[in-house]
Amino acid sequence: MKSALLCLLDECRALWRLRALLAVMVRRELAARVAGSAGGLLWVWLPPLATVAVYFLVFDVVFRMRLGAEAPAQRVGAFLTVGMLAWMAFADALARAMNSLLDAGAMLQKNPLPPGLFVARSTLAASAVFAPLLLALVPLYASSHHWGAGLLATPLLLAGQVLLALLLGYVLAVLTAALRDVAQVANLLLQLGVFLSPILFPLALFPARWRPLLWLNPMTAPVLGWQAALLQGAWPAWQQVWLPLAAWLLLAGAALAVVLQRSREHLADWL
Question: What is the pTM for the complete model shown?
């Protein structure tokens, strides 16, 4: 395990040493996504914004649905917006990171660059697209709880979510390089994961005996944190948000250390 941790530390040091190059690669990745379009980032932001608009129109305007007293918000559209936007940010970053090594296979075979550079590029580029949307919810929801102190937790939640996507994305990227079926399974889990998290319903409405299943989803804790901070202006609870998030980060980091150690000599051949 010690050698595995050394592999992870070497990768972190390499990324820090090449941080200027990483910043350039992220900017180019974003530019490539909007190249040739007059709308620019509007076409990247439009799908999640349209989803949010539909939630408000259907649940708050048309059906005027409301949640129970145990929910962090009464309006269904407001509740769904927070969880779904956080989930879409995580899912997009994870999916792009997962395929990043395959996309950069030819370059990695010709240049002695750390593989994590390409995983970080994809994760940070995807996160840079969704971060403004998530942070834009702060002033939109702040008036409902008079700018509660919990809003100060939003940068920490965003950083924790990005780091979680980076670690898990790197693990999946290496496993996908070794076995292409991993990407298919991961994409299926991303589609199902939204139903196994407190996004479509409050945590209190999920049957108590099945509630532990929700904690198998790495996004349960961040979603609860976003809901507490944005919908209630409350600081996210340690036992429900920060401790589970820390546990997932440690688990993902340990898994990445082992994967890096065992794939070091074979990754180029897999690609």
Answer: 0.92
